[in-house]
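Ticket opened by: R.M.
Priority: normal
Category: complex prediction / small molecule

The reporter submitted a protein together with heme C and asked that the result be attached to this ticket for the collaborator who will pick it up next week. Submitted input follows.
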Amino acid sequence: MKKFVSALVIAATMTGGAAFAQDYKNQLKARQGSMWVVALNMGVLGGMAKGEMEYDADKAMAAAHSLHGVSMIHFASLFPEGSDGAMIEGTTAKDTINSDMAGFQEKWDAFGAAAERAVAEVGNGQEALGPVMGALGGTCKACHQDYRIPQE
Ligand code: HEC
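Result attached by the on-call engineer:
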């Protein structure tokens, strides 16, 4: 079986085609879903930071806890070799993730640290949100820049 799978991987590599996306369907759902939980909660904190949404300490804390919870997921393990956008369709993950797992992990840890800071600070009032959002947003950008295929 292992030999058979290797042969398939080699064949996929050789054709360079977008083959076998279905093999990683669950990983794609899990990692993209994690990103959407992050994005939605960033939206809550961002809305309050900009004053588009009334500040509510409980809601801000709920969002921060959600971010922190997602940051505890071992994100890197959702990116098995061969599941990047050069190999399969339906993902914007760059092949640099697998060639530089340590760097990718570092970026994820930076997000975790910013999420921890969010938990500590977002309950302190509306004015605490700006700096927290700045720190969090910087970690999205830093990772996407190196490990995500740019979006047109
Ligand atoms: C350690 C790296 C890393 C960090 C940190 C990170 N992302 Fe991502 N993000 C990715 C990768 C890789 C993808 C592509 C996943 C895929 O398509 O398989 C992605 C995709 C996304 C997507 C698109 C999901 C989809 O359905 O295609 C959104 C939205 C997103 N990220 C939001 C964020 C936000 C907001 C933050 C910061 C608060 C963030 N990300 C932090 C690596 C990261």
